[in-house]
Task: structure prediction
Amino acid sequence: MKLSSDQLELQDLVRRFFADAVPSEYLRKRMASGTRRDDSLYASLSQLGLEEGFGGSEASFGFAELSVVAEEVGRSLFPEPVLERLLGDTLLPRMISEAARAPLMKLGMRSAFAPSHGSKLSVNKKKGVVSGDISWSFGVEGADRIFAPVCDGSKSGYIAFSLTQPGIVVTPTTSLDLTMPLSQIVLRNANALFFDDADSALVEDLIEIVKASEVYGITARVIEMTTEYVKTREQFSVPLGAFQAVQQRLADGYAASESLGALCRFAAWSVEGSPRQRRLTARAAVSHAAEVGPLVCESAIQCHGGIGFTWEYDLHLLLRRAKVIQAGFSLNGERAEELIRRAKASAS
Result:
């Protein structure tokens, strides 16, 4: 799906800001210093007015615009949880049921998200508490509430709980993705907000589409990097791009990236444009992202030859982000079966 003129303007604004604010040199200095949160970067980001655009009294952006921002986050490897904040702080409070809105706001204002995999939480709905651990999660630095998946017997759903209440221990943890800090959370009898089926599905679908869109931004970036490289790097006195094997590999990567982009944009549109298709498109987008994201990055590294494997080159950083999202949001057996069922129902 094509972006509207307003969405293209937003894309250009965010892309230029990210390019100036987080160049490769900044990311590498941050990695070397072990910085987990940069308040000055947040201050600069606030000047763009994204929070007002997505959640202010005169909000002009919807979820489709958030997916555009997600693409640019992936492209730039933006190292702060801006997507988690915009989704959890501004959009979700507008979109969930009225019954859940007030209890959610009482948990705090700054949001983090646990991935679909990695949570081992036991729930007690009668007492409204949850215990267990979340082995890794995004955006916990500076957050005061988190959205997390739970499984109650054979039924899955989503909860939210305050990170500042007693009985919760948050510990920074290492990650394959060196540009995005992750945290482990251990909780014991923590008070939680249990979303109903409709709100749980909404939370899950939206974070999956956001992460799939982020992977699309990653793949688009590596294809652009590789295309420019094979135009100028010569082997046997001819550009690498003149070799058919390189052309075919690059063409396959481009096709995979663009198919992912089309699917992500359709999924983002379906949130408001066709809610009946939202769950199917969200599942399809995140499934495709988990499959092709790392593959496109790995193929791009191969096309670069020896330099593609070096620490100094940025391709491995993009691959690392794609692999972490794959680990957190790829479909397990149950979720894959649901995707198949919905696809069959849609076709019939």
About this structure: The chain has a mean pLDDT of 90. The chain has three domains: 5-82, 111-197, 199-347. The longest strand covers residues 129-138.
